[in-house]
Specification:
By secondary structure, the protein is mainly alpha-helical. The chain has two domains: 201 residues, Transferase(Phosphotransferase), domain 1, CATH 1.10.510.10; 169 residues, EF-hand (Recoverin, domain 1, Orthogonal Bundle). 48% of the residues lie in helices and 7% in strands. Helix 2 runs antiparallel to helix 4, helix 4 packs antiparallel against helix 6 and helix 10 packs across helix 14.
Length: 384
């Protein structure tokens, strides 16, 4: 999400453009997808769901209409959308409100007592539809569909299933399990052999360049203001421009939770023996890159740390970033604006720290940062 603004009646959300439209439309154009196409989509879908569930969010409306293709006719980059029914939940929290769409709704939701496992049932229905072109639980009315869902008896009688692997069917069976506590979790699904094979194909040619970690070292040596600006830019760069970084992050994120531990980072570095960051340096890297101080490297933190200034610090990005800090649109960034922009839920910079930061950027000594000084800071790779 890039921006929001509100009127008295409406809240506008400006999000990135996904040109490919709904997965539902993509399936109906082809009647059903090949197993390879479905595996590519399900790998990404479960990656998204692992991140959500790890963040204690239940989507509650998983269906093909709520996945978008980033580019037309390209299954390699999809997005999960529409969080209108989503709910923050505590560990193993039981929900009661009946939410969802009849074809995709889990039996326990209909019974009025469910957990995040309802999302995994819906994913099983999506996978079944992708491979066969038909829902596993049908009916001529919502009443008949719901009755079919409650029985939870899916089958593979259609001829289209004859060419589908037993591994794919096994994953569906473990997702469309009537007993929620026996059903696969999103992480178990992401690590299922059918998706492991897909990940091996997808990541086989993804190599982590030594430049990535050279950039990371430069990020660590930068002023906090520069690091914050890079994080701001990283969240707004079109993803087709950072495909290799996105894939490198996914490859290192072994458990699919959308965050890198120091162990995952260490294993990732083994693929790039020329990288010099080792041991204590690695722990120091994680501490600096971890801007929200949760002990992990999140996706945007990783992208920010790995951006190469010559490729990504374009004028349009820098102008937008400067405007973010210059809250009153005066043409300069004041001490108060800096303090406000650099604070988080966990900490606020002390006045002496803000003064030190200002001193490092404010070349004319007027106690403010103008646009020329801001650009100089962002393009000075040696500044620390």
């Amino acid at each position: 999400m890039h921006e929001t603004w509100e009127t008295e009646r409406i809240c506008f959300l400006i999000t990135e453009l996904c040109e490919g439209g709904e997965l539902f439309y993509h399936i109906t154009k082809r009647k059903h997808l090949t197993e390879a196409q479905a595996a590519l989509i399900m790998r990404q879908a479960f990656y998204a769901l692992c991140y959500l569930h790890n963040s204690k969010i239940c989507h509650r409306d998983i269906k093909p209409e709520n996945f978008l293709l980033y580019k037309e006719d390209d299954e390699s980059h999809i997005k999960l959308i529409d969080f209108g029914l989503a709910k923050r939940v505590s560990a193993d929290e039981v929900m009661n409100a009946p939410n969802g769409t009849p074809y995709y709704i889990a039996p326990e939701v209909l019974k009025g007592s469910y957990t995040t496992q309802c999302d995994n049932w819906s994913m099983g229905v999506v996978m079944y539809i992708m491979l066969s072109g038909k829902p596993p639980f049908g009916g001529r009315s919502n009443k008949e569909i719901i009755e079919s869902v409650l029985k939870a008896n899916h089958n593979y009688n259609s001829p289209v299933w004859n060419g589908i692997s037993k591994e794919a069917k096994d994953l569906i069976d473990n997702l469309l399990c009537r007993e929620a506590d026996m059903r696969f979790t999103s992480q178990e699904a992401y690590q299922h052999c059918w998706l492991t094979e897909q990940k091996e194909k997808e990541f086989k040619d993804v190599h982590i360049s030594g430049d990535v970690f050279t950039n990371m070292q430069g990020y660590m040596d930068s002023l906090q203001l520069k690091r914050t600006t890079l994080s701001f830019i990283a969240a707004r760069i079109p993803e087709d421009q950072i495909k290799q970084l996105r894939m490198a992050f996914s490859k290192m994120d072994k458990n699919g939770d959308g965050q890198l531990t120091i162990e995952e980072l260490t294993v990732g570095l083994k693929d790039c023996p020329e990288i010099a960051i080792k041991g204590d340096d690695l722990e120091n890297a994680l501490e600096i890159i971890d801007s929200n101080k949760n002990g992990l490297i999140d996706y945007t933190e990783f992208i920010a740390a790995c951006l190469h200034s010559q490729n990504y610090l374009k004028e349009n990005h820098l102008k937008t970033a400067f405007a973010y800090f210059d809250k009153d649109n005066s043409g300069t960034i004041t001490k108060e604006e800096l303090k406000d922009c650099l604070k988080s839920d966990d900490f606020t910079l002390e006045d002496d720290e803000i003064d030190k930061l200002l001193f490092g950027v404010d070349q004319d000594g007027d106690g403010q940062i103008d646009y020329v000084e801001f650009i100089a800071m962002m393009k000075d790779s040696m500044m620390n």
